Amino acid sequence: MSELDVTKDLKLPNTRTSMQEEFEKLGIEKGMIVIVHSSLSAFGWVCGGPVAVIQALIDAVGKEGTIIMPSQTADNSDPSGWQKPPVPKEWWPIIREEMPAFDPRVTPTRGMGKIVETFRAYPHVMRSSHPIYSFVGWGKYAPYILSEQPLEAGFGINSPLGKIYELDGHILLLGVTHDSNTSLHLAEHAIPNRVKVKKGTAMLENNERVWKMYEEIVYDDEPFEDLGKDFEKNYSVIEGTVGKASCKLMKQRPLIDFARNWLIDFY
């Protein structure tokens, strides 16, 4: 759909002011801790694009609030596991040798969308240190939430996801579904006897670039959409729209508690 078609599809433009009002109508409150997953295109035409969405979110949670977004860099991983797209085997050692080390200040996100990539460079936003599964955050609790993220458990209990759980934060899905709900990876750590595999990544150790090998579980978002639908049958999820985006707001902790049992039964 062209930009002209998008504008024709709206009576009025989406703006920072209109989206703040809609976020608040959805249930976003001052002081709230929110992990956000988003699709800019789902909003329709936005005056100011991703910057306006971010400003509206900040306005909605206020100076006492906290906004977290996943800022993953899946391309900084071992090329032997790449599928979208795969690369020739003879390239693998070259990539392991030459991939730039993850730098939270400059390494771009991959496949996370325009809102996250814009938020990454937004004033007073900080980023966690995990070379593949980093998070970015703004607000009161961002320094604590992003302060620790073990390499071997990027989505584990001591990760930013675990700290949001501890602080009883919320999940906000903006134009996306549960298959984009990163918090559900936290629940995967409850699955008994989950097989760990060797992973690799380029990172800094003592200010030197190294190719680091480590072991971690294989994260699998394939069942997340069905999991989320089952959760919504039994628990409170606020649904609404911001612009043209279908949105959902929910507490993270009840979802993770439900998901842990659901995934154990699934596997």
Oligomer: single chain
Q: Looking at the structure, what is the overall shape?
A: globular
**Termini gap:** 40 Å
- Percentage beta strand: 15-25%
Low-confidence stretches: none
Helical percentage: 25-40%
Q: Tell me how many strands there are.
A: 9
Q: What Rg, in angstroms, do the CA atoms define?
A: 19 Å
Rounded average pLDDT = 95
How are strands sequenced across the largest beta sheet? 3-4-2-1-5-9-8
Biggest pleated sheet: 7 strands, mixed
Secondary-structure map with pairings?
Elements: H1 3-8, H2 16-26, E1 33-38, H3 49-61, E2 66-70, H4 92-98, H5 114-120, E3 126-127, E4 135-139, H6 142-145, H7 160-166, E5 170-174, H8 184-188, E6 196-205, E7 208-217, H9 224-234, E8 238-242, E9 245-251, H10 252-266
Parallel strand pairs: 1-2, 1-5
Antiparallel strand pairs: 2-4, 3-4, 5-9, 6-7, 8-9
Helix pairs in contact: 2-3, 3-5
What does this structure look like?
It holds the Pfam family Antibiotic_NAT. The chain is an alpha+beta fold. It has one domain (3-73, 107-189, 223-266). It is 32% helix and 21% strand. The protein has 10 helices and 9 strands. The chain has helices at residues 3-8, 16-26, 49-61, 92-98, 114-120, 142-145, 160-166, 184-188, 224-234, 252-266, and strands at 33-38, 66-70, 126-127, 135-139, 170-174, 196-205, 208-217, 238-242, 245-251. The strands form 2 sheets. It has a 7-stranded mixed beta sheet with strand order 3-4-2-1-5-9-8. The chain is globular, with a radius of gyration of 19 Å. It starts with a helix and ends with a helix.
